[in-house]
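EI: anyone free to look at a 1000-residue chain?
SC: sure, send it
EI:
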Amino acid sequence: MDFFLPSRILRRAVFLGLGFLLAPAALAQGFTVSGTVTEEGTGVLLPGVNVSVPNTTIGTATDIAGEFRIELPAGTRQLQFSFVGYRAEVVDVSREVASLNVTLAEDVLGLEEVVVSGVVSTVRRANSANSVEVITGRELADVTTTQTLGDAIAGKVVGAVTNTYTGAPGGGMSFRLRGITTINGSSAPLVIVDGVVYANDAISNGINAVTRAAAGGNASNQDNPVNRIADLNPQDIESIEVLKGPSAAAIYGARASNGVVIITTRRGTAVGGATQFSVQQSLGFGTLANTLGTRQFTAETAEATYGEAGLELFNAANGQTFDYENELYGNSSFLRSTQLSATGGSERTQFYASGHVKDDEGIIEGTGYERQGARFNINHRFSSRADVGFTSAYTRSVANRGITGNDNSGTSFGVALSATPNFVDLFPSTAGVYPNHPFNSSNPLQTRDLSTIGETNNRVTTTGRFTYALLQRATQTIQAVVDGGADYYSLQSSLVFPVELQFFQGPGLDGISVQGRTNNLNLSLRSALVHTAAVPQNELMFTTQVGFSLFSQDQDILRNTATGLIPGQENADQGAAVSVDQFRLFQDDRAFFGQTEANWGDRIIGTLGARAERSSLNGDVDEFFLYPKAGLAVNLAEFDFWTAESIDLLKLRLAYGQTGNTAPFGARYTTFGVQSVGGVAGLSINVNRGSPGVTAERGREFEGGVDVAGFDGRVSLELTGFRKIVDNMILTRQVPFSNGFNTETFNGGELTNTGLEIGLSLIPVDTDDFQWVSRTSFWTYSAEVTRLDVPAFQVLGGGFGNTLGSIRIEEGQSPTQIVGIDDTDGDGTSDGVFTLGDAAPNFQMSFNNELVLQRNLRLTVFAHWKSGGDNINLSELLYDLGGTSPDYDEDDDGDGIINGLDRTGQLGVSARPFVQNASYFKIREVGLYYTIPDRMVGNALGGVRNLRVGISANNILTITPYKSYDPEVHNFGDVPVATGVEVTPFPTQRSFHVHIGFGL
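SC: here you go
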């Protein structure tokens, strides 16, 4: 339902928050309490600990020496101490207690985490009505070194499905939360870094000019682009909060239908006023994670497969064979990562500064990913009323991903390899001349060695946050908050394919140069008033926020493609013909938001909120759309009747919310093509017909759950069920040619998604000498297209047609169903199109176990299990067609027909052989570290502290029935429902690292 936001709604929201100004402003004469706060077990002083009087707005924080002093009103009986990463403590006080020494225990299971509850407010996890996933910086970077942030997150978010575009260094990844939320819209979550909307675009480098992968009208992105979230350094991240559904993300409105990922980078700490330095160094190597092998030939099989030419080449080889899988994918890549950081300051000013250098080679020679960056974050408190914080980061990255994935020209490494028998010699002569491939249009070794495929990205992100306390009283506060910033990147791509390459021997080609650049600027701004009011006698706390936000994006993609390149030249102006493509995107969003939260003694917590937003992408750019939210949490363990002392938390929660997914840019405009008549250029209306009434999709979600915690912080269970309905789905359909157009975008249809998420955290053993922390997660979802206003259709990017298997959208079916032709009666002919599988998994589980011995030796093992979910494996088909499949000559079903002929014999009859089970069990990360006690290194290495050494590994084991390099694949980039289509991707690597880190 769409709403216009009258001004009276905003006025009522403001009056609701400010109404508590009439509460009592002063209490009776009080007394003063001071003391220190330290870490349990170590005695380390803790600066920045929040010290507050429950059910009031009275509070302070410990200084750089871990000391505090607070004025308490008469009648106060308790003080609460809370700090990120530690379990909160409530301590009894009285006039007779003038000094307190408080110890805080580490919150190993994250029971006291503070999570986002509104745009500019937070809430204790124990009081949240939503399931919010939190990944700490330690979980991201302290176990092993990953290529990108996407790799570090994979498998760690309950309710997420990840698929890699490519295993190339710095490669891309699709990241979907809680199943399918759209058909043709964006499936990527909204990413916010330190308050600014962070661009996570996947920009094509233009290599389609060579591969022709998008020939035949398929407009899907098949260039294996890098997600720009790869520009973030995981070691600079303090925490990641994932708002998985509309009930949590509604306050972020449109663009939040796929969830919100809120990233907070590290802030400075001041301990004793000294600046502390940290050095982290990792060195490693990577290898091909899984080898497939190749077919072993005889003279008979060589002749049967390749004819007389094959027999001649086989005999000429005189028994010599070549391992081209090892030659292409067998590079032992060198991996290096260095991080330097400093943190310090004073009680008023704290800073964090870091610099990092990363250099990862790829398992394909000549590929790699380099990243250098610097960050400086600073916070300053002007007074007890005002503080300001700034963050700034610069990143430069260089990526070379080679040519992998689908192609229609035989130029990619994998497609060429599939047509290469092991008796053919493709190596260059001593003069550097490469032979032509006899059975393919390109020699992959020549393409690898002579081509230039590079991308360079420069990125600057800066944010600021200013808060000012307009009112500070014992029972209420009013705080003004303004934050925002800019995120800018400039991506340059340079692809050069010289005329010497084999695939340029045809007429009219003769070399290609593709020179591209992308500039993107995101601007974000939020301003809000936050009112907190307390009614101590009733144990009530109210937090109300109202505010305004704006977001704008300006993206410009320009690509020059030169063909007929002059030998020895690289510039785009040195070609016989130059074509220019440009894509420009402008988006402006404006929104008002408001939210009120009521807390009755941590027993019952209720939340009401809404966001009213308009966007330049909607058909009516002036219309506001309302996205409401509501939540209720009841903690039975806080009521007086509760007697089970071993259970600290038994929370029932229910939440509802709505979010949107904006229409694609340009959907409301008619697209004009360029046509030349008699040498005169003009416009033609032959592409997309504009849809002036197109609006954002709307997602509505109910979420309910139970949270249990107890046994002195050693057990935590979170169970969540949800049902999400997406209507006004954004769809693209073909229109009759007589209209003069090809396609149009419209709203129509409904999608329903239900799911279950379970998280169990345990500390089975916790002694002074040994600790075992175990976390197990389970999640599953099921989606159905409950209404479709057009006939069933194949998704663009969802495969290559019914002959090979494809994703079809059909009413009453899963939006990820795989359909294809099939021979159901076994007569050797196709009987029609049938459902052959589903790309969605049945369920997923993750297992994270950490063993700590004597507080110094730490072993961490992280494993991930995906059950079910099918891939369309077209790599095996290409190897079969090329006669090189490793099991080509075997007979698995015993029918007397070898596998290669059995499978290729099904082509045109059944797509079933290509739809394969992609279940897997992976040990994603293993880390073993030893922290040398300071007393052992203090004399030998003066000033060195926290010296830690370790070893780690990524992707150390994969168990799967899937017959390819890795079951986590996707040929078509970030297409929402089309995952698991494989066409000779860049294989995944297994990596090993040694680490050393220390402080100064």
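EI: The first strand starts at residue 31 and ends at 39.
SC: 👍
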